[in-house]
Amino acid sequence: MEKTMVLLFATTLLMLSSPLANAQKKSKPVASPTPTPSPAPAPAPDYTNLTELLSVAGPFHTFLNYLESTKVLETLQNQANNTDEGLTLFVPKDSAFSALKKPSLSNLTHDQLKQLCLFHALPHYYSLAEFKNLSTIGPVNTFAGGDYTLNFTDVSGTIHLTSGWSVTKVSSSVYSTEPVAIYQVDKVLLPEAIFGTDIPPMPAPAPAPEIAPAAADSPADVAKDGDSPAASKKPLDSSASCRVMASLVLALAGLALFL
User: Fold this and answer.
1) What's CA 78's distance to the chain center, in Å?
2) Does residue 212 belong to any structural domain of this protein?
């Protein structure tokens, strides 16, 4: 009996000290939390290439050449893509430059030509609907700064621009996706700060054509048709005289017979 108890006790100690028992006594490992995925980076805004837009959108080659030669294009590109304000650009067609006879741009210095190009830009994005508000606040500063301002007028939904020398209008929207807006204008914007205040007067409107009264018959036609009062009066007077003379002759003849 004692041997049986000793054997049972020894067997129990052996089982408790075995690796399997120790493994069972160990606590279960705690699962590590799943890491939260980091948000995806916001997509970079699209780069607006003004050179590409002006080359494809319309016949703006003359204006684009001026922007490139004066390095103004780099300034406008930076404003369009690297600022929160955006850009509004007014672009004249090639025909607007060819129609410009006086004053001429050929006599401008490099700095004046640069200011002229900057005068066509506003350092802020404006949609067409926002120009109506600009018409009520007076002169608007352009990218050229200083006295280089433009006046806007909304005439039945059409935007008119006045620069002193130039009075033109926005004829179409070339590109308008914030932060860049490009609008076509009919004339080159000429600032007073360069060309002075001796602005040529606006040409007077052409007079309305007068409706001429019905032309009277020419003397030749009158003579031909015999409808002139003077011409018709003479035959009437001569025939009356003949009748009077005939009456007198008959009267005298009757008197002679009576006698």
Assistant:
1) 23
2) no
